[in-house]
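Hi all, long-time lurker, first post. I run a small reading group and we've been trying to get comfortable going from sequence to structure in the token notation. Rather than ask abstract questions, I figured I'd post a concrete chain and ask someone more experienced to write out its structure so we can walk through it together at our next meeting. Sequence below, copied exactly:
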Amino acid sequence: QVQLVESGGGLVQAGGSLRLSCAASRGTLSTRGMGWFRQAPGKERELVAAVRRTGESADYADSVKGRFTISRDNAKNTVYLQMDSLEPEDTAVYYCAVTRSYGTEYAYWGQGTQVTVSA
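-- Answer (accepted) --
Happy to help. Here is the structure in token form:
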């Protein structure tokens, strides 16, 4: 079973940057798709970014296009979310998730990391 450890969250001023990391301590990411989700207080969890198993394409929520970049390093068994030009509206708990091996449904989730953007 895949186990995910997230890091990189914190407090940043609007316009700043953060890089979130999600490392798999068990299993491998090479055969799985990866996604980053976020949930703000009082709001539903939403998909922020996703990268396919091959890493050849990525999808982003409209609200973060041009500002966030998802990438993966299979050699390090790690997925990243580079967040630039952060806005207060980006404040949320961010979760990474992975699919089953060669699957399409997200089955494994990290514990979440808090991102807070001050105005």
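A couple of things your group might point at:
Residues 67 and 84 are 5 Å apart (CA to CA).
The radius of gyration is 13 Å.
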